[in-house]
Write the structure tokens for this entry.
Amino acid sequence: MLVSAVTVVGIFASPAQAGSWSSKLTDVGPGFESRNWYQPSSSTGTTIKFTGCTGGNTVVNVTLYKVVNNFPDTDYTRAAFTKCFQSPTSTSTGNWNDHGAGDYYFVVNDGGGAHVSVRSLVVSY
């Protein structure tokens, strides 16, 4: 596991979603893993939004994972975020279908790439 700097801004509940949390990323490298969150079975899926991306590339790849005990974690479709590099207020959004109750996390640039900073990120489920 690659250790990278991350600054957690806080956790906020959203009445419109089953749950959500917000944060930012500061100069995280390829393979950075977010914190885990529990997603209930009543979820309609996962949405991840990055706003204000900067770094060595103009794309950041985000992959959603589900924790699987005693087996490798299950990975889902990789989303290529590009719009968030256009300005400090531009947002890229990735949407994943509901994959059942469990613990989830996302990985940044798990296939390789440059370091990235993200001014604001929101995970909703």
